[in-house]
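Page 47, continued from p. 46.
Same chain as before, 605 aa.
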Amino acid sequence: MPPKKRSHEKPKNMKKTMRQLLSYMAPYKWGFTIGIICAIASVAIAVIGPKITGEIITEIANGFMNKVQGIGGIDFDAIKKTCAILLAIYAFSAGMEYAQSFIMATVSNKIGYRLRQQMSEKIDRLPFSYFDDHSKGDVISRFTNDVDTMVQSLNQSLASLVSNMVRIVGYLWMMLSISWQMTLLALLIIPLSLAVVIIITKNSQKYFLSQQNSLGLLNGHIEEMYGAHEIVTAFNGQQKSMDQFEIYNDQLYNSAWRSQFLSGLMQPMTMMIGNLGYVGVSILGGYLVLHQVIAIGDIQSFITYTRSFTQPINQIAQSMNMLQSTMAAAERVFTFLNEPEVCPDTKDPVPVSFDGKSLIQGQVAFENVRFGYKPDKIVINDFSLFVRPGQKIAIVGPTGAGKTTIVKLLMRFYELNSGTIYIDGHDTRMFTRKDLRSLVGMVLQDAWLFEGTIAENLRFGNPKASDEQMKKAAKMAYVDHFIETLEHGYDTILNEGSTNVSQGQRQLLTIARAFLSDPKILILDEATSSVDTRTEILIQKGMDALMEGRTSFVIAHRLSTIRNADAILVLNDGDIVEIGDHDSLMKRNGFYTKLYNAQFSNEEE
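Result:
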């Protein structure tokens, strides 16, 4: 289960996240600048519209009064000319707004593309320990929900924030040009509106971050429960799963409800305050018209500005809420990108091949290896071992003895606390990780296959392998007959999770995949744990032939599979307690003998 997090967690370093976000946006500054200029131009020209509309109303009113008095009429030519100007203004404003939307959408999605690309590359540089402490769902949530939140905010909120600020300035300027008295009355509503915005924003910020964190926890739980659906059902764990889901769902609901409720309060609160100002302006405007301080059309213009004046304030508040959510998402994304990485490969690596031929024989040595997944929990205490090229080494012991850990250290999935591992006398740190892992073929307990054809899965470790080599590897793994009975043979599509083949068949395919990579070192970690006895015997024959000339490490609980090993390492609590072949270990009547008798006492009888 993913670890629980406290609700309403605040951002750890908002200023640092803002600085990092701004530096990340720097390569796209011209795109943002042009987009913002277009937004400013669109708003600035549109602000003039209500003033011109007021002039039209004034012209019509004056013409009507002149006609009533018999001294003239309505000047329709002037009105048509003014309407044409107004139409041109709004057309230009719409064009600028379209350009702004296009530019901002392009730039923001480029940033999203770059973020996902860097996060994808980051995964390959993260130590395995990171994934021990973080659920898959939480990582996926950072890739999807958090990046999408950032993209949407940069696309919408940034331009909206700037354009609404321009609207406020533009409306204020036009209002002052009509009447400073009416403007003063309208401005009295601003402090009250700002106070409401500040209070709501301050209280909603913590809930937006909590919402992002809760969403990551919920995604992690769903991914875990869906991936282990059969196990959950088999052990009647549905209720436990649902109970945990309810906890995470309640956390998400509470944080999302509070954040949305608080942000939703802004519009009705600012609208109510704005309506109070609108009533006062209407009364004062009528008074000024009666005293001929302003024209009648100016009332309509000013009322339009007054009604519009509170809208950008409200939209700025919404943009601020969106930016708060963005900062919470950005903090999670940048925290991921700033995670400590594995130490870089050596700049002067030992070559593993020359002219297409391997330079490695397969000698392996562990010297005083000490390792723990956590500093206070040492798994391997003081492990030393020398393996000659081509030897078959079996590793046995109770659960938690450190069997799988040893081969993970050989692959440099984790770095040693102390000690050294050598291959052909070279410290494994003197190889690049890619070269080191190209020397090793690995079959894990979890028979994992990718969605795609059987052929693509078999060639995963050796993309250049020919059809003949692939079929030979399948034959040696005793999976060729099964493949040929399928309608599409090697072109059969394995679905997500490979549920259209059995567990035993998946294991056989992973063994064939390891064989096709033609490694110098072969690791079989419980490779036969998911097959029946008959299949296990066939696999054992194939493995004996394929392990010929290769240094092999076999980890198994079924001790019958490692009787013919050159040496058997018996581990307990991270130490080698016994070493020898099967017969010599049985004669000692020690720890190995107890393991063997506990497993095969019935068969021996």
